[in-house]
TrEMBL record, chain A:
InterPro entries: ABC_transp_permease (IPR001851)
Any Pfam family hit: BPD_transp_2
Membrane topology qualifier: Multi-pass membrane protein
Residue ranges of the TM segments: 6-27, 39-58, 64-85, 92-109, 144-161, 182-210, 266-286
Protein name as annotated: ABC transporter permease
The entry's keywords: Cell membrane, Membrane, Transmembrane, Transmembrane helix
Organism this protein belongs to: Sneathiella litorea
Chief site of localization: membrane
GO cellular component, as recorded: plasma membrane
GO molecular function annotations of the record: transmembrane transporter activity
Localization, UniProt: Cell membrane
Source lineage: Bacteria, Pseudomonadati, Pseudomonadota, Alphaproteobacteria, Sneathiellales
Automatic annotation (TrEMBL), chain B:
GO annotations of cellular component type: plasma membrane
InterPro entries: ABC-Purine-Binding, PnrA-like
Signal sequence bounds: 1-27
Keywords: Signal
Name of this protein: BMP family ABC transporter substrate-binding protein
CDD domains per the UniProt record, alphabetical: PBP1_BMP-like (cd19963)
ABC transporter substrate-binding protein PnrA-like domain sequence ranges: 30-290
Species assigned in the record: Sneathiella litorea
Amino acid sequence: MSGFDWLVPVFLTVITAATPLVFAALGELVTEKSGVLNLGVEGMMLVGAVSGFITVLATGNYFLAVGAAALAGAIMAFLFGILTLSLMANQVATGLALTLFGVGLSALMGQDFVGEPVAALTKLNIAGLSDIPFIGPILFGQDALVYFSFIMVAVVSWFLYKTKAGLVLRAVGDSHNAAHSIGYPVIAIRYMAVMFGGAMSGIGGAYLSLAYTPMWAENMTAGRGWIALALIVFATWKPGLVLVGAYMFGGITILQLHAQAAGLNVPSQVLSMLPYLATIIVLVLISKDESRIRKHAPACIGKIFHPAA
Amino acid sequence: MLRKQLSGLIGAAALAGGLLMGGTATAEDKIGFIYVGPIGDHGWTYRHELGRQAIQKEFGDKVKTTFVESVKESSSEPVIRQMAADGYKLIFTTSFGFMNPTLKVAKQFPDVKFEHATGYKRADNVSTYSSRFYEGRYVVGKIAGKMTKSNVIGYVGSFPIPEVVRGINAMTLAARSVNPDVTVKVAWVNTWYDPGKEGDAAKALIDQGADIILQHTDSPAPLQVAENRGVWAVGQASDMTKFAPKAQLTAIIDNWDGYYIARTKAVLDGTWKSEDTWGGLKSGMVELAPYNEAIPADVVALAEETRKGIEDGSILPFAGPFNKQDGSVGAKEGEALDDGTLLGLNWYVEGVEGKLPK
């Protein structure tokens, strides 16, 4: 019909590529806003992915599967919390260990499920609306998790900037001593933020194993947890920009594959590094304007809180 | 990365522990395997593991086989050395990157025999072996050329190395021999393994008109995409029909069982010599999965005829005349590319679109 019909499948692919990043980055953003840096996103995503996958195989219920993935991610994050918040271990080292642990644990859990296919999460199909040319399949033809990711962006924005609880969480992240001295339970709040981050990472992982490539394979996240971490800095800790960043990142990846398939004579290695290059450039640009970072970056990130002090 | 390194170290430690405990002398000969990935990868390492099991089954109590999985290539040397030091008779190192560590250790243990997969350096006690996967791709190309309706075949590539380029070229030559209108689009993902990205590449190729998807990457994601989009695909390394029961035309399967048994026998008999083996369909190193029932009988017959022709040597996949992508002569009538050229192949044949990344 129109000359832009080819754009529809591109958009559809971009959406599936971006959604797991939105979930994982949004969860980690809340964790970081409370002043905790959890580098274990990749590990939590993997455990979420395998948990969701096993649950679907066992029950056939995708709702339960997403719940199981969130729970598994939250349990992983809880472990991280015990180590870093209660036992005061170094957050960076513990986060890295959590990723390594998650890679191994998910491989162990999934051992008997490699090579088992499941049906992909069903896409919404609203008679009439989904058939509208161009915008129909993009706006009304997605699976439930895609809509959920958009809802969560709005919810997290609202929570952080429009509620008292969000204000407290940000206060804890900006100055845990001040928050503590006026009576807020710093550790308890951080536990909740960390576990929310874990649950969201778990859902992001489940999106991979249930919708994106519906299967379980070892290490199937292939570095997306790290991209999610970069996206938060890229977005200068703003939920709305996380969404933009995830779609830009997904968009560049997909467009470079299309460019290759179309026979454009650009070296594929250059195209492969484009998304990362974009991240670095944006990092440099925002670093020039320190006030932009300082305004939104949690001041206490990564610092250990000693309640006695 | 880090994980592999760690698991390699852990593997080495576990091996050392196991060797200490199993110190009692037995009459059986010990045969070791070093794997680059996990045995559950459903592809490359999994097929080598099946080969190990085949040895154990064939020789029973006469041999004892052991493996260490997920050994990072750069930290493989101590793992290989540990095995050699403990009196293993024969050690298979099954990834290209194990080449130099294998040679280094082999020098220090002249009595131990080594078998290195896909490398090109040999020594008196180091053999190399690899597989002519491109022969399978040639058979698949005949099927693809007949089955495509859009005359566009999509190919998900890993890295632009000769091994992968050979497959693309063999498939293209075969497809165009039965259907001169065929063009081949390649999307390089620059990884052996990233299910999401492999799947995305398949989607991009399908969106650009491809109705058959081939891949030289390790996950079944491209087949899954093909199944969902209702186009054809070809499995890689293992039979992937579970992931794409309707879409998989066939699969190109690595089979090391026969070679591994033969080499073990040679060590047991004392007839082992350093050799270079590059086996294909004839030796059974390359196999094809059962053809999809939707393929018409005449196409199956053509594929079988091609397979038999390659096996008896009457068909050479890289026989001329054909042109390179730039229009210059690739091979003249009556000539065929020799193994030396094939091992260093770094250009596309006519019919492949896009520029080969260098």
